[in-house]
Design goal:
With about 450 residues, the protein is α/β, with parallel strands linked by helices. It has 15 helices and 14 strands. A hairpin with a 4-residue loop joins strand 2 and strand 3.
Length: about 450
């Protein structure tokens, strides 16, 4: 069905621009209503792992809807049991307890509340504060915005955010390209990790319930990982020292995006809680959750208590059936291993872009990659904010039928630009070649244009 621009605008929440209309998707490609194909180089907002248009997932959804479309959360349903079994095969030892929600914000919110209630069950009722890092994103509810540090999204609600009300300062982020402490690795001796202990002591260890961090920071920083596994080992030691629950936010990185089931496994560190969303159902249904260490949930069971948070669509039969089918496909087609292989190929091909004058740093793991755009390669200085480089590059890549995601790290002047690539794991080498070739041409062209400004 073709609609006029006026009709499209009338059906939008915001009516500032006419959005593109997608009509179908297959593999790594989306097709608009005019028949033009676009390479989905970020899987939407880093969601699609198994590729678009998998008819077997649609068949599974149809079967589940026809059999049992809804049941109240808390009852056992086969689709949820099967999904849990499949997740348990991927989780580290001692992490078999799975709680379900619908989206990443809901799952992080649930994990934060579970951490606080765990402290209460453990006899530490005064531990209620949540510590997070600078330049982090953990969701869009008030509680999850408070745990994160994305200024643009927090700004309208600052007076309501718990961290603002309680004057809790964020922990230094681990971003060697833009070190918040003005240091250089390895001479810094991971001062950013030590800053967690500084913040705990400033707040009072008896009041801090949990610390949350992304193993690899995606949208908020443009794909930033610590320079060494020792970073998260120090984080784990500090959390243990003060009885603080360590939450790994793997909404983006979970289920193979970095070439392992969970990105925290790259650092050989066991979190207390792993939050997941996006990749668990590959965008085919709203589905999320968190995985907790068995020992934490045992504290509830031994005390005869329950985690008191459920949502209407928690453990939804159709979403769980779709998630189970997606994970079956991931297993049968070895897509986590493919993410590692295609990610390595993508990383090698991207290295060719390092000669382009506006490319500052190439980084990432598996099929999660970031490109820092700068005005000066030697200093890493960004372009002035008024040029809006990130959006400009995005527009020109769109004209070349490439879709990608943006990073949101900005300095105090609002300067900074990052591009994020997170293609479906089914991407072929030839499609990566096309992607990188087009990226190179656009970045080279825009770099020349910026030099003339």
């Amino acid at each position: 069905m073709t609609r006029s621009d006026a009709e499209l605008l009338n059906l939008q929440f915001h009516r500032q621009t006419v959005p593109p209309v997608w009509s179908s998707g297959e593999g790594v490609w989306l097709t608009n209503e005019g028949g033009e194909r676009y390479l989905d180089a970020s899987g939407g907002p880093m969601v699609v792992n198994i590729g678009h248009g998998r008819s077997e997932v649609a068949d599974t959804a149809h079967k589940q809807i026809s059999t049992l479309s809804y049941a109240m959360p808390g009852y056992a349903i086969e689709s949820r049991l099967e999904l849990t079994e499949r997740i348990q095969k991927l989780t580290p030892n001692g992490m078999d307890r799975v709680w379900y929600g619908s989206g990443g914000s809901e799952a992080v919110e649930g994990a934060l509340k579970f951490a606080i209630q765990t402290q209460q069950v453990s006899g530490r009722p005064d531990k209620f504060k949540i510590l997070g890092r600078q330049n982090a994103y953990h969701g869009s509810t008030l509680f999850t915005l408070s745990a994160g540090d994305m200024p643009e999204r927090r700004a309208p609600y600052l007076k309501l955010l718990p961290d603002v009300v309680q004057d809790i300062q964020p922990v230094a982020d681990c971003n060697c390209y833009h070190c918040p402490l003005g240091l250089e690795f390895p001479n810094c001796e991971l001062a950013c990790a030590d800053d967690l202990e500084t913040r705990i002591l400033a707040e009072g260890p008896e009041t801090v319930a949990a610390f949350i961090a992304e193993p690899i920071v995606a949208a908020a920083a443009g794909v930033v990982a610590p320079p060494t596994p020792e970073y998260f080992r120090k984080i784990r030691e500090i959390c243990d020292k003060y009885d603080i629950i360590f939450i790994a936010d793997e909404v983006v990185t979970g289920f193979g995006r970095t070439g392992l089931p969970f990105a925290s496994q790259h650092w050989d560190v066991l979190p207390d809680i792993i939050v997941f969303a996006k990749g668990v159902a590959s965008g085919y249904a709203p589905l999320s959750g968190f995985i907790a260490q068995d020992a934490l949930v045992d504290r509830f069971d031994n005390a005869g208590q329950r985690f008191n948070t459920l949502f209407t669509y928690s453990e939804h039969p159709v979403s769980c059936a779709i998630g189970a089918k997606v994970q079956e496909i991931m297993d049968e087609e070895n897509l986590i291993q493919r993410s590692a292989q295609m990610g390595d190929y993508l990383g090698r091909k991207l290295e060719a872009l390092s000669d382009i004058s506006i490319v500052g740093e190439l980084r990432g793991q598996g099929t999660l990659r970031g490109i820092e755009i700068v005005a000066n390669q030697e200093t890493g200085d960004p372009f002035p904010a008024d040029i809006n480089v990130a959006v400009d590059v995005q527009k020109h890549l769109y004209k070349r039928n490439i879709l990608h995601y943006l990073g949101y790290w900005r300095d105090d002047l609002g300067q900074g630009a990052q591009l994020i690539l997170a293609p479906p794991f089914v991407i072929e080498e030839s499609e990566i070649d096309l992607l990188v070739e087009t990226l190179g041409e656009v970045l080279d062209d825009r770099g020349a244009a910026y030099r003339k400004m």
